[in-house]
Amino acid sequence: METPAQDAAHMARAVELAAHGHGTTSPNPVVGCVVLDAAGQVAGEGFHAYAGGPHAEVVALAQAGERARGGTAYVTLEPCDHTGRTGPCSRALLAAGVARVVIAVSDPNPKAAGGAARLRDHGVAVTTGVLAEAAERVNEEWLTYARLGRAHVTWKFAATLDGRSAAEDGTSKWITSPEARADVHRLRAASGAIIAGIGTVLADDPHLTARRPAAVRDVAAREGATCEGAAVRGGEARRLDGEGGQPDGEGGRLAGGGARSRRVPLRVVVDAEARTPRSARVLDDQAPTLIAIADDTDTTLKADLLRLPRRDGGLDLEALLRELARRDVVSVFLEGGPTLAGAFVRQGLVDRVVAYLAPALLGSGRAALGAAGVGTIAGLHRLTFDEISPIGPDVRLIARPFIQRGRE
Known about the structure:
Elements: H1 4-18, E1 32-36, E2 42-47, H2 56-64, E3 72-77, H3 89-96, E4 100-105, H4 115-121, E5 125-128, H5 132-138, H6 140-148, E6 152-160, E7 164-166, H7 178-189, E8 193-197, H8 198-204, H9 214-223, E9 266-270, E10 289-294, E11 305-308, E12 310-311, E13 314-315, H10 317-326, E14 331-334, H11 338-346, E15 352-358, E16 366-367, E17 383-391, E18 394-401
Parallel strand pairs: 3-4, 4-5, 6-14, 6-15, 8-9, 8-14, 9-10, 10-11
Antiparallel strand pairs: 1-2, 1-3, 7-16, 12-13, 15-18, 17-18
Helix pairs in contact: 3-4
């Protein structure tokens, strides 16, 4: 039996594999799996690459073949115990003869949970909670969706070092560098929806679409838009999300899975009074668009409208996120101005903040965040930093609320 240190090392690899599914598995979770043979040697690796495709366990077991018998499987999320578009992974593990299964996070979805219990009932040794925090983090969007019944929210903003997102005359193009803007498009493309307020639509007339980086498009063309890494052979998987994009030096390649297409993020405009112009670029045919308006607003606007109750002078944003979840939107990317951002923060609905800071000063102009419900210093919305990274000449900061809803 493997030592705790070995368990942690193999689970860390499973977490790394799971991350390769970001942006293509929605509304399913990202999951990674590593299978050892009875001698403790790695026999198979895999991750869930796209919704409807083979699950991580199935891919890793297929790669391991008979070597899985008597071995150990490391899985970042409890193996499913139900039949959906694919069969239950718990039974696949049993059929493969795996002797032990190590699980990082229990499945909060009652329809899919129960895999650990089934494995134990059939004599498989099950260990849970190994590297749970890392596995939670890599799968945070889906876990928010599953636990809270709403879409996970990432708020992105770009600002100068003194916190200004626009100059006094309203101009904001461009505060940050081309490298930072390319990184934003990568994050946009991995989300289920991009949200902006009517103020941004009226001021900037944005498309709210995601441009895939050139490296991503080139690899996709070469691969014929096949599965993004259903399994790994000989090292790191090839990635189509702009982080890598090249096979490893030992001939890493994709295996398993079938053709699938990347989902285009839904565009969402928060527009209580239905002021979106008919000529707005968010109403073009580049991507689907949803206009969220107040339930008492009278309008002739011809668009996909979602009527929501009013709250705090705007709309009930939690109701919006719950409706998006019902439409299988797992994660949203919040853009636009300080008013809408302040409303999301005020209503406790921001799960992650991604800030791009440019080495520049304005001294006056528009702040990145508007009224967020803080009247005194004791009411600060406390965050914790996860990452501080250089992006071209700029810096990218990633932070999360000190207390995350659903994980208290």
